[in-house]
UniProtKB/TrEMBL annotation:
This is MULE transposase domain-containing protein.
Length: 373
């Protein structure tokens, strides 16, 4: 909806989950709702996609849910690779492939990963699985193919399933159809009332909370280097050689609820090449940084670099080109670098998840810099 929160469009009750049964359900939906979505996200099975094609035609973009892809990789790694240290290494490689946002660098890394997997007997079985199942449809799971689509996982649906199962059904299996319908209608009723309360009293949605949090972080990015032209800014990270490009996008419609009051800009006004904006579709810290530092100039003429130097040091053209080339080369050999990382950090990455890994990595970096190690 307008607050970027999901709401169920239809429920399908069936004793089968194949293409034929789903086609009947989709046909019933089509009679009441005329939709033509640009993006369709499913789990790893093909039954939903085949049924959708039969009724609605081929969508412009088909995506796999990142959460389901990651879970499938973890299960296959544990099944096909015996040694824990090799499991960690394989997971780190495929996860780095998943999160790569530059298409050219992604395919270089992919070929290097397959080559390295094939050279070791321990990884060969996983290499065959990965190549057969996922390499033929990289457009469906790689981040470089889903930038600015506004969707990354179907966790809204997963969350709804958990709510119905444990809150309304109290973890019990319902065998009677009438009771299942009763609880589904109760769930929809509660969601409708929540929506009415939200419209009357207001609500801080998860997207607004994330937007405000990133604005605070963006205020602290005073050491980042910026070079800008008429409608484009280059933001160089201080922690790595990453360079993020922030560009003006489209003008937002009046009454937009996803607005940063301090920056006086909304989520759709700018795009950034960082994962937070390009994949997660949040108004990232780099956008907040640009807006807050150039609040008076965003909708007017762009000043020269000398006016920008008050807030942060500028980076000249030659230095920026060096950064960009160096960035590409580093990504091209990222698979080789993964072999030399600490086993402790890899263990955190595999067993606690990628988000926790980066938190631990950040803490380790701070400790090492403090102790000069």
């Amino acid at each position: 909806d307008d607050k970027r929160e999901g709401f169920p469009a239809a429920f399908i009750l069936s004793n089968k989950q194949d293409s034929k049964a789903l086609s009947v359900a989709f046909a019933a939906i089509k009679e009441h709702v005329s939709i033509s979505p640009k993006v369709m996200m499913t789990d790893n099975t093909e039954s939903f996609l085949n049924a959708w094609r039969t009724v609605f035609g081929v969508p412009e973009k088909r995506l796999l849910c990142t959460w389901h892809v990651d879970r499938s990789w973890r299960k296959s790694i544990v099944k096909l690779i015996k040694k824990p240290e090799n499991q960690i290494q394989a997971y780190e490689v495929v996860r780095s492939l998943l999160m790569e946002t530059e298409e050219e660098a992604f395919y270089i890394m992919l070929q290097e990963a397959l080559k390295n997997f094939n050279e070791t007997d321990e990884f060969r079985a996983f290499k065959n699985y990965f190549e057969h199942v996922y390499c033929k449809r990289t457009e469906a799971w790689a981040y470089c193919h889903r930038k600015w689509l506004g969707i990354n996982t179907n966790m809204h649906i997963e969350s709804m399933h958990q709510t119905i199962k444990y809150v309304y059904l109290q973890g019990k299996k319902v065998k009677k159809l009438d009771r299942a319908l009763f609880y589904l209608m109760k769930f929809v009723r509660d969601r409708v009332f929540d929506r009415l309360i939200c419209l009357e009293k207001g609500k801080i949605s998860s997207k607004i909370a994330q937007l405000r949090k990133r604005h605070k972080v963006g205020q602290e990015l005073t050491s980042l280097c910026i070079r800008k032209n008429e409608e484009e800014w280059s933001v160089a990270s201080t922690k790595s050689n990453e360079i993020y490009i922030v560009k003006k996008n489209v003008a937002c419609s009046e009454g937009c609820t996803l607005m940063c009051k301090e920056c006086k800009q909304c989520l759709n006004n700018f795009i950034c090449t960082c994962i937070d904006n390009a994949v997660q579709w949040n108004m990232g810290k780099h956008i907040h940084y640009i807006c807050s530092r150039n609040l008076n100039e965003i909708n007017s003429a762009v000043p020269g670099d000398e006016e920008l130097s008050v807030h942060s040091p500028t980076v000249d053209k030659e230095e920026m080109v060096i950064f960009e080339d160096r960035k590409f080369l580093e990504k091209a050999v990222l698979v080789d670098k993964s072999n030399s990382t600490s086993l402790v950090r890899e263990a955190y990455f595999f067993f606690f998840g990628p988000e926790d890994y980066f938190v631990v990595k950040y803490i380790i970096g701070k400790v090492c810099s403090y102790t000069n190690n």
